[in-house]
Give the backbone structure.
Amino acid sequence: MSSLNDPWRIDAVAQSLGLGPDDYEPVGWHKAKLALGLLERFQSRPGARYIDVSAISPTPLGEGKTVTTIGLAMGLARLGHRAIATLREPSLAPVFGIKGGGAGGGKATLFPADDINLHFTGDIHAVTSANNLLAAMIDNHIKRRKMPLIDPSSVTWRRVLDMNDKGLAHIVTGLDDVPQAPLRETGFELTAASEVMAVLALTTGLADLRVRLGRIVVGRTPEGQFVTAEELGAAGAMAALLKDAIRPNLVQTCEHTPAIVHSGPFGNIAHGNSSVLADLAALRLADFVVTESGFGSDCGAEKFFDIKCRARGLRPDVEVLVATVRALKMQSGRFNVRPGKPIPRELFQENVDALQAGACNLQAHLDIVRQFGLPTVVAVNRFPEDTEQELELVRRIALEGGAAAAPISDAFRRGGQGATNLASAVVEAAKGNSRFDFLYPLDMPLVEKIRTLATRLYGAQEVEFQAPARRQLEQFTQGGFANLPVCIAKTQYSLSHDPTLLGRPTGFRFPIRDVRLAAGAGFVYALAGEIQTMPGLPSVPAACHIDLDPSGEIRGLS
């Protein structure tokens, strides 16, 4: 295999998939936009096995889920299978905030990593522009008293930015001497948390994109009727801005296997998965498709099952659950781990007692996946500080907890070779017929869907709906949106709403403070606890360590 220093031209990657010159459009030497319609063109090919990668509850620095996804795809290729990894586009918010780059690490990375982590092919900028165009048209519509009239206090549509900027979370607009917009309170959210991003990730084509954008609800009339982007005349221009962003992006791993990186909804706020279009194309081009869901199985994986897979009848075959020694020790509650702060050195020292105390978190995630009927392979992601005794204990706990297999993954240090054991376990698990099903039927009332998620997956005793949330749920039901799935926005660090409740909390009340309608994306999302849709920067942002050297090379991004 070649090294990172000599990647293939994107034409060679495309040709390895059997793509012709009309099936992709190069964007420079190492990226390409795939053409729409590949599903129809390659319809005669058998469908691939569909593998989702999720994790236990993570530490603030992440547990190597992207590394595992990339490594697994490369490991499958080393076993002779055509495999494609499908991943989300990194938002600039975590790139410059806490986590840093999102293109893998070590010997399990994507190329070109710097491009992917920064502006890439401009998809996220297009989402930002489309979202903010609608925001500007809403204010203009209200100020000019166009029909249908919109009650300014009812407007739910907010502007977005692909950057952590807490100062914009709550603002007042319309302060000019001769205002073009009404004076009102509003704010900014992250682009990755926006409904437009969710639409991009869930759409199945240009016509569907246009319909979804048109049905976005932005506010209400004084009489209480919902007002949509279609009624404001904004949906067509929004679709035009997203014309190229809808096309998935083809790149490569550091071992020249293909990867598709497209869309970027957050896993703890939005639905946390790469695009339906990317996976539909990959499922016809490969033997195995390895996709990644954001954060733990309670966040991205549940939304992968109940939201993304519903969008086009997708049926996964195997769930891979990434577990690490340090995350399980942290789940014991014996270590002071805080976002934006260094991980305590004691977490890297052998501590079998803490590992056993935190193992209940792994069992909880195995139980979550089991409710969807999928076989689970636990990937024990090796870190340098892990001892053999600790690694073997995690394997034993996983197997005793019902995992189909629990191989050690060493993709960070050894690339695809370090993930062949994991790949073999996934191939074996995929031979069986999964009994995949959703957690709840769509005709279940919205309140009961939220209660089902909180009690059956998170461990809550009951859900506490604050008065505004209950009122919104009633309005959405009366408005004809009761049959939508639900998306819970909550902390990723705990199965509960509270990041300090570690391990496997039970008996708590799960507070829902706000519920919002994403009619264009096709779900209702509820905000639990103190989750924020525009977070701030840590005390030492990752941006402080990023620089450009005199030769033009970016340093400190990965």
About this structure: The first helix runs from residue 10 to 16.
